[in-house]
Amino acid sequence: MASTSQAPRPGAGTAHPDHLGHVIFIAAAAAMGGFLFGYDSSVINGAVEAIRDRYDVGSAVLAQVIAVALIGCAIGAATAGRIADRIGRIRCMQIAAVLFTVSAVGSALPFALWDLAMWRIIGGFAIGMASVIGPAYIAEVSPPAYRGRLGSFQQAAIVIGIAVSQLVNWGLLNAAGGDQRGELMGLEAWQVMLGVMVIPAVLYGLLSFAIPESPRFLISVGKRERAKKILEEVEGKDVDFDARVTEIEHAMHREEKSSFKDLLGGSFFFKPIVWIGIGLSVFQQFVGINVAFYYSSTLWQSVGVDPADSFFYSFTTSIINIVGTVIAMIFVDRVGRKPLALIGSVGMVIGLALEAWAFSFDLVDGKLPATQGWVALIAAHVFVLFFALSWGVVVWVFLGEMFPNRIRAAALGVAASAQWIANWAITASFPSLADWNLSGTYVIYTIFAALSIPFVLKFVKETKGKALEEMG
Fold it and tell me: In sequence order, which residues have a C-beta less than 8 Å from that of residue 410 and are 6 or more positions away?
């Protein structure tokens, strides 16, 4: 999808208060895709053990069923921009809403393990689409004066979606008597957990009919008058909209479409700046953050925590994730990206190392000793907090800013692909690694968190306060 970094005319984009409420509604409606992104990514956490039991599969097969959605994510993210440029942002949202709905129904009513995996891939495709369309659409409809704050709606919606999915899972588990396979509404509890996503998916689809198409897309297909009306809705009336439309047209004509070929160069295939982007993406995933959202209930149950309590701890972890994300949003422009990343890395090393220590003790009557159990629980929350207030937000900010204009789109695509691949590697490997040695697994994550510190110090440049044109 085309970049949206054109500079506004003086006086443009300073929405009046009566327009701002409408703009906030538009951005919030688009961010429902982010909510579903977070919800669908983590709702599987409540079904892992039930799927293992119902289909009698080992850790390796189970991991593939959990991780297979990431294949869909990668495909959805790679194709969403082109789809949106061809048929429009709103139609793209509506397709994602349909896919989320189909995935929820199919996942709740699977015939066998293979079709559960298929529904997971479809849901992943919708996640990938939502991860691209939401931020792009919000940027294109937001007045420049509010673009940063409205753009943060997407990340906020993702972490809220994660938290809500864990709360819903916990409530449904309690309703089923603490048994993931207990009967609930004529189905097993885990099936209801996966099926509940129908509600926000349908809401997302309905909201997409209540918000306008992107003015930028309308201009690209020659619908100038419609674009002017929408610009007036979101930016007020004190703007010369003919000049505004002309300005957008000129900016679109100036933009160069970067290609994969533009990224090549240097001693190691890619240009150094591209490798730095890939490094940020890989480190973000290799600290094991998604283990906390895909497998936390299984993790706590494996060290003797009661299933209902394990679901509750998954929910509290999600709340900590929200708190950390808010902290990052407050400080990323004040403290800077690089200091925040370093603070987060140090905090993650401490949290992960304490988890590795706690999990190194033998279970007593199927449980960790009391001291180690509490240390593991607190350390897990510390880890998620420091990730959320740093790498969870900062990496996306860096990737949006660090590349030169000429290669930004293509370099972002490569870095995002690296992130999905790294996410898949961690997600697919955790059950087998945990069976091998849970403490050793967390030692591996601790090492990656520690290595991220010299990586940031040596290779990553601060982008705070710099114009995009300064990146080179």
Answer: 258, 259, 260, 262, 263
Count CB neighbours of 259 within 10 A. 11
- Pair 50, 175 in one domain: yes
Q: Which CATH number do you get for residue 25?
A: 1.20.1250.20
Q: What is the distance, to the nearest Å, from the Cα of residue 388 to the centroid of all Cα atoms in its chain? A: 11
pLDDT-wise least confident of 61-70, 222-231, 411-420 = 411-420
Three-state secondary structure readout of 288-316: CHHHHHHCHHHHHHHCCCCHHHHHHHHHH
Q: Is 216 left (phi over 0), alpha (psi -120 to 50) or beta?
A: alpha
Residue 8, domain member (yes or no) = no
Do residue 201 and residue 275 come from a single domain?
no
Among residues 296, 295, 274, 395, which one has the least CA distance to residue 345? 395
Burial 152-165, CB ≥16 within 10 A → b, else e: bbbbbbbbbbbbbb
Same domain, 163 and 294: no
Confidence of residue 307 (pLDDT cuts 50, 70, 90): confident
254-258, long-range: CB < 8 A, 24+ apart: 255/2, 255/3, 256/405, 256/406, 257/409, 258/406, 258/407, 258/408, 258/409, 258/410, 258/411
The burial class, CB within 10 Å (0-12 / 13-18 / 19+), for 346 is middle
Quick check: helix, strand or coil at residue 69? helix
Statement to judge: residues 188 and 313 lie in one domain: no
Domain end (from 181, 211, 241): 211
At residue 155, does pLDDT exceed 90?
no
Confirm if 463 and 395 have CB atoms less than 8 A apart. no
Give the residue numbers spanning the domain of 159. Answer: 15-211
* Token pair of 201 as six digits: 């998916």
Q: How many CA atoms lie within 13 A of 247 on its CB side?
A: 17
Report the residue count for the chain.
472
Specify the number of domains making up the chain.
2
Q: How confident is the model at residue 451 (pLDDT cuts 50, 70, 90)?
A: very high
Task: Give the separation between CA 312 and CA 51, rounded to whole angstroms.
Answer: 20
For residue 247, tell me if it sits in a domain. no
Residue 441: CB atoms within 10 A of its CB come to 23
H or E segment at 181? Answer: none
Q: State the average pLDDT over residues 386-401.
A: 86
Locate all alpha helices (DSSP H) within 295-407, ordered by sequence.
296-302, 307-331, 337-359, 370-388, 391-401
Query: Quick one: pLDDT at residue 260?
Result: 60
pLDDT at 46 over 80: yes
For residues 158 and 38, the answer to whether their CB atoms sit within 8 Å is yes
Identify whether residues 283 and 398 lie together within a single domain: yes
